[in-house]
Request: fold
Amino acid sequence: MAREVIRGAAAVEGVETTLCRVPEMLSDRILEKMKAPPKPNDVSEIMPELLVEADGFIFGFPSHFGMMPSRLKAFFDASGKLWAGVAKNAVENFIAGVTTTV
Reply:
């Protein structure tokens, strides 16, 4: 789904897109026991402080019992100073969107 969102955004003239994922919170051992699929090699991790380098964001995530995954919540919590205006004008006037699956 994320790749389709990227494809659509990239179709707009002058728009440059990058597909990223938030850092994993579980250890490789736990992920292996869960039989989690491997992470794609062409998708890099983003850290909260890198959000200021973008002109906009589209966050996409699955819902789990009606909630976002805990690692996405941890990412948003870690970027709180950007949203709260502590880093003056850090993400002011950005275009943002959210997509989710159920």
